[in-house]
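Saturday, quiet lab. Running sequence design on the structure tokens for the scaffold JK sent over.
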């Protein structure tokens, strides 16, 4: 259905159009009566008008309104043009730095058939397509001026199969939906650290979290997916069906189509974990201690120092500790953390995992200004620690932190999935979070300074967090890149899905 226009006066033409599209209006009235379905009145798109848009190669094009109207009518979900009520909300993404982007149309898909219709519409008109699940792309890849946003947010159902230890999730789910559904059965799969992140981008790019060292990355737990390809075909990918596509979806991002369904492997997990937050004086002794400790920690341990700017110049490290296993074993294995003399405050104990998984949700909420650079470290060499010691605690606009990798995720061969960086022991992130756009330039400069100093020590980057030039992106896929190009040629030869860590087709 097509959404209505705010405050627009009715003309005779409008009235006639409304009549001729009474099915749409009726559906809207029904939708408006249902909780959470929106309350805007519906109207038809003005006939004869052409809607300006951008092609996938960046050219200015226009779309016939009758075609848009037809698309809207074909949907169980909703279609928004810029003049429609609800457009501003529908186009919203997480990073406020991209609030000013205006897609020509937003298609909110209610099911796979809607996604197929939207993809066919875009391909036939050569439109620039962005795909939105949770809208958390740091560099704003899920929105584009003049593009067609395919928004999966209405597709959020999850089913857990406790016998098979699997979870099926729609392609528009947030990580909160996965955590809630699985933890209700004392089961879990690896998800990320902020619960309003989308499972779509998260899973297809790799998927780190508090349990990857024990359970593997999200891509290692992805056992099946259903994808709408650029040709509009609905293709299932599993070890038995199209295994080449499953391989590519495990780290190749949104390059091969729109995933409308994921099936994950689940692991037994106690919803009350052992761990907590510890605060240390940040100095070289602490950094050396962390580097040594990491070498000795079992897979169950996830230990992640964060460095935040402090107004009084105090140098502190906040260390988040999560143990994915038996509590008594955790207490023993993590004891060196509480014995270290630099400890200033905090303790370890038993806490709710669901509460931990949502603890950063408000601070990292929708609409703030964000800028991030990050990279993967194979080890904490003295030279890398020098840089971190120098930049981390400065009185700057950014925070920085370690994401603890390795363990189970490092035991998978680099060519077993498209996600290649199996030797990475850490991801190191540097991020600005603010509310004043006037600070953005300074913040970006400061983040880049830190990143440039640390980049020579990095082995590559996580495509879900970092953006770089085409050449660096291709190089970052490393030895897996040629196989990814073959898959791109097969499933998206015209590069319809290009707003991502893009793999260039060669056909
Ligand atoms: C606050 C925050 C916390 C984060 N924490 C973590 C973390 O703990 N671990 C981690 O690994 N990463 C983390 N990330 C990075 C995160 O994985 C990426 O930003 C990811 O792209 C977000 O997915 P999304 O669906 O919300 O993004 P969107 O902006 O909706 O999509 C990003 C891109 O993913 C692709 N895409 C999304 N859904 C689909 C789909 N169903 N089918 C095909 N393509 C799709 C598209 O190419 C799209 O451009 C975090 C990001 C943020 C902003």
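Result came back. Writing it out in full:
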């Amino acid at each position: 259905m097509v959404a209505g226009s705010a405050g627009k006066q009715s003309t005779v033409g409008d009235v006639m159009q409304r009549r001729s599209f009474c099915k749409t209006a009726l559906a809207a009235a029904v939708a408006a009566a249902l909780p959470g379905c929106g309350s805007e009145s519906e109207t038809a798109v003005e006939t004869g008008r052409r809607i300006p848009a951008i092609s996938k190669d960046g050219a200015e094009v226009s779309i016939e309104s009758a075609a848009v109207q037809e698309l809207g009518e074909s949907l169980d979900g909703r279609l928004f043009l810029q003049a429609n009520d609800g457009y501003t909300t529908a186009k919203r993404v997480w990073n406020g730095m991209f609030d000013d982007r205006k897609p020509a149309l937003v298609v909110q898909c209610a099911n796979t058939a809607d996604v197929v219709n939207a993809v066919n519409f875009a391909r036939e008109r050569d439109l620039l397509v962005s795909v939105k699940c949770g809208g958390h792309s740091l560099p704003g890849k899920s929105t584009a001026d003049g593009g067609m946003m395919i928004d999966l947010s209405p597709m959020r159902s999850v089913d857990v199969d406790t016998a098979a230890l699997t979870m099926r999730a729609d392609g528009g789910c947030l990580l909160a939906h996965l955590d809630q559904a699985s933890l209700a059965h004392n089961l879990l799969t690896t998800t990320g650290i902020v619960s309003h992140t989308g499972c779509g981008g998260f899973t297809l790019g790799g998927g780190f979290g508090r349990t990857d060292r024990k359970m593997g990355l999200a891509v290692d737990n992805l056992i099946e997916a259903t994808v709408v390809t650029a040709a509009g075909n609905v293709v299932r990918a599993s070890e038995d069906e199209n295994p080449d596509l499953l391989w590519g979806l495990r780290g190749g991002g949104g390059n091969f189509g729109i995933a409308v369904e994921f099936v994950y492997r689940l692991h037994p997990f106690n919803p009350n974990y052992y761990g907590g937050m510890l605060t240390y004086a940040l100095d070289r002794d602490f950094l050396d201690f962390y580097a040594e400790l990491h070498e000795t920690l079992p897979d169950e341990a996830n230990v992640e120092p964060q460095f935040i700017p402090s107004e009084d110049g105090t140098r502190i490290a906040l260390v988040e500790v999560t143990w994915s296993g038996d509590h008594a074993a955790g207490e023993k294995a993590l004891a060196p953390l509480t014995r270290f003399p630099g400890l200033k405050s905090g303790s370890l104990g038993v806490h709710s995992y669901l509460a931990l998984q949502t603890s950063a949700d408000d601070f990292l909420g929708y609409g703030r200004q964000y800028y991030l650079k990050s990279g993967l470290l194979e080890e904490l060499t003295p030279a890398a620690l020098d840089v971190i010691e120098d930049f981390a605690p400065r009185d700057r606009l950014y925070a920085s932190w370690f994401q603890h990798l390795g363990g189970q995720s490092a035991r998978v061969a680099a060519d077993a999935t498209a996600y290649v960086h199996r030797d990475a022991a850490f991801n190191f992130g540097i991020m600005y979070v603010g509310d004043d756009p006037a600070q953005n330039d300074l913040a970006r400069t400061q983040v880049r300074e830190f990143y440039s100093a640390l980049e020579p020590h990095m082995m590559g980057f996580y495509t879900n967090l970092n953006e770089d030039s085409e050449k660096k992106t291709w190089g970052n896929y490393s030895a897996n890149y040629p196989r990814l190009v073959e898959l791109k040629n097969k499933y998206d030869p015209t590069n319809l899905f290009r707003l991502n860590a893009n793999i260039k087709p060669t056909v």
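Notes for JK: The chain has three domains: 12-151, 158-268, 272-457. Residues 5-43 have pLDDT under 50 and may be disordered. Ask whether to fix the surface positions before the next round.
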